[in-house]
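Can't attach files on this board, so I'm pasting raw text. These are the components:
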Amino acid sequence: MADLDIRDLHVQVEEKVILKGVNLQLSAGEIHAIMGPNGSGKSTLANVLMGNPFYQVTSGEVFYKGEDLLAMAPDERARKGLFIAFQYPVSITGVTMASFLRAAVSARRGYKQELMPVSEFQKLLRSKIEALKIDPEVPGRYVNDGFSGGEKKRAEILQMALLEPQIAFMDETDSGLDIDSVKVVADSILRMYDEARGGMGVLVITHYSRILQFLRPHHVHIMYDGRIVVSGGPELAEELEQHGYEGIRQQFEVVASEVQEEGAVRRAGKVFWVVH
Amino acid sequence: MASGSPGAAGMTRKTVEALSARMREPDWALTRRLAAWDAFEQLPMPQVTHPEKWRRTDLGDLDPGAFCLVGGTGDTAQMRFIGTIAREVGERAGLITHLDGSLAAIELMAEAAQQGVLFSDLATAVREHPDLVRDYLMTTVAPPDEHRLRALHSALWTGGTFLYVPKGAEVVLPLMSQTWLGAPGCALFPHTLLIAEEGSSVTLIELFASTGDGPRTLSSGAVELILRAGARVQYAAVQEWGLPMWEVGSLIRAHLARDASLRSLVVALGGGLVKVDVESQLLGPGASSEMLGVYFGTGGQQVNLHTLQEHQAPSTSSDLLYRGAVKDTARAVFSGLIRVDPGAQKTNAFQVNRNLILSRGARSDSIPMLEIMADDLRCTHGSATSHLDDEQIFYLMSRGISRKRAAFMIVEGFFADVFDRIPRERVRSYLRARVAEKMI
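---
Top answer:
Structure tokens for the assembled complex are below.
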């Protein structure tokens, strides 16, 4: 059984249905990418997996190492090794990055009431900041407060490096970055992936294929209208480059008209693309 | 355990006479107390005389004269309790401890004493330094007849802290006072008189606490801060009253002469109902006042703070930052007035009030007010009220931090810009710990 097993997940926000039956299996040691047009539900999926209370799961199941993930609060998920790099991290005025990171690392490492000793934490933080070439002023600043878009993304990567997740969701970590920054981010992710020696799985959510050229994911999934309609290898990203999302939409609708039934569309969609 | 209360039947003119006799006061002091008592008997409650300031405060059937007056026999177990507060704040140049309205202990380090600094309970100062006390005690800064509760305070002040800093004296470490009320059902009227002479420099930190058990207790205090030309004073009042306490009609008022500077910090954490006026009157050119405030109401607490930044002279500046949080069904009211008198040109006056609401049932009102009668000045004021942000909570929780700690971190962050302006780390960490306790 995969470490993360998503079965027929349906999610809505208020009355709007966003995920219409997502199935996905992901294990440590694997790099997956989910691509898809805006509004297809990619970010929703990452947020729901992390437990964002804004979204309601209406049906389906998610198991993490055999446990019911949906029954866990977000902090429990994080302590068990899940991580999300947010597309739009919120700022928290008055809370320094250093105190936030120390609380987070302490929680992840199983400290209960007390926190990780300052000296030990400082050493760890310094090493990660150097490795990721992050501005040494960052720990003294308030959480994401006044950060540029790129600084926010790098701060998310720093958190990932400190928390050493087993499964990380990267929610459009490449968006808004120039190509050089995309490469830096991809290199950082790959370094963490390599250092984990098969202990870390990554789910990269992206609109563009450029970060995938660096990451070379094992599996690529295309999400469309709340479902994963196609799954394949890295070559899928290249195909998508040629056809565009409009191509998917047309092909998906052709299949839908032929098959009529919801569940069958999903299966047929996958077959269809592979045949093509 | 209302030990030492002279009469549970309440306060009378005889209570005033007995108190004055017990303190071995000179005639002038008794005369003043009795005049104040007469004013108390004649004045209506402040809701009547000052309706705008009091209309958001529900005093119910409060009868301030019905409490017993503390009798000055606190026990040493309580003293140990407040002793820990003073220890947490750290090194000091002196400490006064008041138990139930009487002096329990006093210390003053040689460094301060050798510079001629006078630091004692007010009752002792009335006997030993009548020349100083007579001229300044409730004469110009806090007159006895401003409202009914002030009159009662003036008639029945007990214990009290007196601090006189001679011209040019500089006391580096803070002086501290701690005041404890342990008698359920009793009233306390703490008074502080601080006189900082020309060019002197001093820090006074005052802590107030009271029993958490038994029937309602009452406190109505007055703090008079007199800053002569060029004096630099840091003043902090930190209260952790027990929940039975109603602190009503208290005043912290400063008079600042030319080039004097004051940094004040008011911390309101305890008490069932708290209503305090904090005022800086800038009387001489070049005077400046920084006013910091922290309040946090939980349970059913009511916190009312009213501030005044009054610019009576040109080229004066004031900078106020008050931050308050409310949780459960607590209610906070902040009203802050900036008044710039005619002719007080080249004035800088800033006021910021921020409120954080942590529970659906809690409420916070912020009322900034301006009365500007000069035309060449810089003046800004802002107030904002926000709720605990679900997205921030989720962000912190997504990193493994529990909801409880996440909420605490956000609240601590909310107070951070006030805490960051408090110069002493020990005071900052003490306040952080108290805020953490309030979050439980």
